[in-house]
Every structure is written in C-alpha cells, then in structure tokens.
Amino acid sequence: MVELKTDAALDAMRVAGRVVADALEAARAAAAPGVRLRDLDEVARTVLREAGADSPFLGYRPSFAPTPFPAVLCVSVNDAIVHGIPDGTRLRDGDLVSVDCGALVDGWAGDAALSFTVGTARPEDQRLMDTTRRALEAGIAAAVVGARIGDIAHAIGSIGRAAGYGIPEDFGGHGIGRQMHEDPSVPNEGRPRRGMILRHGLVLAIEPMFLAGGKDDYYAAGDGWTLRTTDTSRAAHFEHTVAVTNEGPRVLTRA
C-alpha cells in the first residue's frame, strides 16, 4: 500500500533527514587510513543519540538476512556494494567506501547514502562516484508530479549503462515514511512512462548503485548481509530521501 504524506509529515521527515545527513558527514569526516569500520559506526551512533533519534538499521532483519543487522551504519568497502557490516577492518589509503544510514525521529524515517575515497582517489574510482552521483541527481529531477516510477528508473539506468557500469537488478530504491521500507519499489533501470504515477506527497528513497566492472552479478558474503561484486570490481552507492511535491522534488536528506 502506498501512503501519500501530508505537508506536515514532509516537514517531520525533513527533521529525520537532517539527522541522517549529519551522521553521514560525520562518518565521512572520521574516515582515514587506520580507522576501523566500527569506529565510523560509533561516530554515527553518537550523532543519532545526541539528536534523540533511533536507528531503523539496528536490529533490522528482512527475510534474506540470517541475523539482525548489528549496526546503525552500513559500511561497504571497495567490491562491497551495499549492506556491509562495520567490523574491525581498518581503512587503507585509496579505499572506496560507501556509507548508508537511517534515522527515526518522532516516528518518521530518513535514509541516505554516499560514497567517498579514503586519502588519494584513483581516477577510475572518482569517475565511478561522479557518475553514480549524477545518476542520483537525474533520478531526483525525474521525481515530479505526473511522471512515473519508470521515468526515475530510466533516468538512473541510462546514465549507468552509458558509462559502461553494471547495475544489480534486485536492489534499488523504495518508498519511505513511518517505515524505512515502504511501497513502491524504485528500480535503478527501467522503461520511461511505465509504472505508478507520481503524486504530491509520495516519498521515495532513490538510490543508484553502480558496479565498475560492467557486470550486474553479485553474491552475498559469508555474513549473509554484505553484497559483493562477483568480478571483484569496485562499487559506488548514493541515496537521498526525496518527496514528490507540486513545487518539484524536495530532497529531505541534504545537509
């Protein structure tokens, strides 16, 4: 069931979105060679706690997961696409890191992600991140009243494919509101003018993820959560929570 949010609800979700933005920026600022992945999670926990926010990630257990997620932050490094568990692994110069975070404030959710390089970026990693970020912005621009879900999917996918990147088929964006994951699903590839019509008050988490090797294949690592590229190529992931409004797309998770 798709729920359209009131303008007051969008304002409330913006509060949660700011917390998410702050947590992601704090994690990025803390990332440096030698820092453990779990240290980034502790940074995000502090931001959420000081804001009076809860985490929709911590303890989350969808049908595919063997165990509840143990952190407030997903930290996916290099060939990890999404859902990386922050552990004792230490960051190294040149690592490509994707961090994904959610927050719950007064019963409303926000969800966003970003990718960055620790230390010196390889040119190919910078291109991958820039392209994925550009696809996110194209998806946001397509999230207008009267458009369709397929328009968002097409905007994202056409940029990824033109750059020669892979797109994991079974993972993409989603509705968001009282719950972190709500209807509808938002694929990262599709045909324009297909799917549900977008209306004022619809809130979507739009999240392209591209694989540098050009293949779409991935596998679940031994922890049952982390998704990795089968060819060991690197991945990037960007996400914003976006409200469809009569005034145009409203990004609720920008800083």
Automatic annotation (TrEMBL):
It is an enzyme of class 3 (hydrolase). The gene is map_1. NCBIfam families: met_pdase_I. Belongs to the peptidase M24A family. Methionine aminopeptidase type 1 subfamily. Binds 2 divalent metal cations per subunit. Has a high-affinity and a low affinity metal-binding site. The true nature of the physiological cofactor is under debate. The enzyme is active with cobalt, zinc, manganese or divalent iron ions. Most likely, methionine aminopeptidases function as mononuclear Fe(2+)-metalloproteases under physiological conditions, and the catalytically relevant metal-binding site has been assigned to the histidine-containing high-affinity site. A divalent metal cation 2 binds at D111, H174, E207, E239. SUPFAM superfamilies: Creatinase/aminopeptidase. Its EC number is 3.4.11.18. A divalent metal cation 1 binds at D100, D111, E239. Residues 12-246 form the Peptidase M24 domain. GO terms for biological process: proteolysis. CDD domains: MetAP1 (cd01086). InterPro entries: Creatinase/aminopeptidase-like, Pept_M24, Pept_M24_MAP, Pept_M24A_MAP1. The keyword Disulfide bond does not apply. Removes the N-terminal methionine from nascent proteins. The N-terminal methionine is often cleaved when the second residue in the primary sequence is small and uncharged (Met-Ala-, Cys, Gly, Pro, Ser, Thr, or Val). Requires deformylation of the N(alpha)-formylated initiator methionine before it can be hydrolyzed. It catalyses: Release of N-terminal amino acids, preferentially methionine, from peptides and arylamides. Pfam families: Peptidase_M24. PANTHER family: METHIONINE AMINOPEPTIDASE (PTHR43330). Keywords: Aminopeptidase, Hydrolase, Metal-binding, Protease. Monomer. Substrate binds at H83, H181. It comes from the Bacteria. One of its GO terms (cellular component) is cytosol. One of its GO terms (molecular function) is initiator methionyl aminopeptidase activity. Its cofactor is Co(2+); Zn(2+); Mn(2+); Fe(2+). This is Methionine aminopeptidase.
